[in-house]
Amino acid sequence: MENKQKKIILTGDRPTGRLHLGHYVGSLKRRVELQNSGEFDEIYILIADDQALTDNADNPQKIRDNIINVVLDYLSVGIDPAKSTICVQSALPALHGLTFYYMNLVTTARLSRNPTVKAEIQMRGFADEGLPAGFFAYPVSQAADITAFDATLVPVGEDQLPMIEQTREIVEKFNKIYGETLVLPKAMIPENETQRRLPGVDGKAKMSKSLGNCIYLSDDPKTVASQVKKKMFTDPTHLRIEDPGHTEGNVVFTYLDALCTDDHFKEYLPEYSCLEELKAHYRRGGLGDGTCKKFLINVLEETLSPIRAERAKWAADIDSVYDILLAGTAKAVEKTNATLSRVRKAMAIDYFDDRRIVKEWENILKN
Ligand code: ATP
Ligand code: MG
């Protein structure tokens, strides 16, 4: 197969809102590192507007509006359009074709077992209201996205593991029935456990656009500080500074686990050399929440202020952003059409690619 040896990345995001810190630690930061490693032949980043419509069919304007937010977030964290192709899902008709064929390779029972989709159905109230078939089946369309680009690697947060598993099953089944055609992808999740599924500022569920518990990459410094000061509950048993405190399940420490390095201590809290020392002091007692929160705000600002500055630059030139998206999408149309052709050929439904079938039909009629 033509692309078998190539190293190809596909990732994407739903344009349901601006991107947040969970996206950054779970996937975006890794994407930029992989992009700049020079180890990959092709990198595609998909703005999954069709997927976003599966649970926002009544609000297409929201999706339309957020495409620009997501692209700006990509560019501001360091996604370089010269190295990574940014494209829009709904403009890639091959993805619809692939989804349609893959649907036949998946049972409804299998789709019902997907733990991420199960949780999302609950969260969105679809259990009571009725479940859109498109939402139920979105892991199949995600398999189409991944395979259409011949992706070998998919860097994602932990919630996406069931999707990659589903994709691998579809690839294996397709190749078994129709012959070696699709590339088997692998997921890549962060080594740091907290980064795999960053909780919201409330410390409870996953930080998610749909839950309104986010620190957005484009939030201004005042908003970020107020999220930390007002929304983050620390340890309810740590009433006075001298009381011993708990760091497990304490959202301030969870965020520090995900974000801070020893260099941050040198810069902002030189009394400690590393997070373990800070945690030990908190557990012993004698360390106030205010000090920890102030440190976290500094760490957040060090991460977010360059992103904010870069975003402002791109936001002043939306014409160029549009051109980046247009060029990326055109490239992705070609790439995904080639895969669909390969798939149609493997499935023996490529009737009109050449006139070969005329001979075949003549032979059948002769016999
Ligand atoms: P929605 O609520 O619309 O589903 P979302 O916030 O879950 O939005 P997605 O667009 O579904 O964001 O996810 C995009 C990528 O970001 C995926 O790879 C996902 O695993 C990762 N991701 C999203 N939220 C988090 C999080 N809190 N921690 C780590 N990774 C995350
Ligand atoms: Mg999601």
Produce a short descriptive summary.
This protein is mainly alpha-helical. It has 18 helices and five strands. The longest helix has 29 residues.
Mean pLDDT score, rounded?
Answer: 95
User: How far do the termini sit from each other?
Assistant: 34 Å
**Category from helices, strands and their pairing:** mainly alpha
CATH homology superfamily of the largest domain: HUPs
Please give the largest β-sheet: 3 strands, parallel
The fold-level CATH name of the largest domain is: Rossmann fold
List the helices and strands in order: EHEHHEHHHHHHEHEHHHHHHHH
Based on Cα principal axes, name the global outline: elongated
Give the distinct bound molecules.
adenosine-5'-triphosphate, magnesium ion
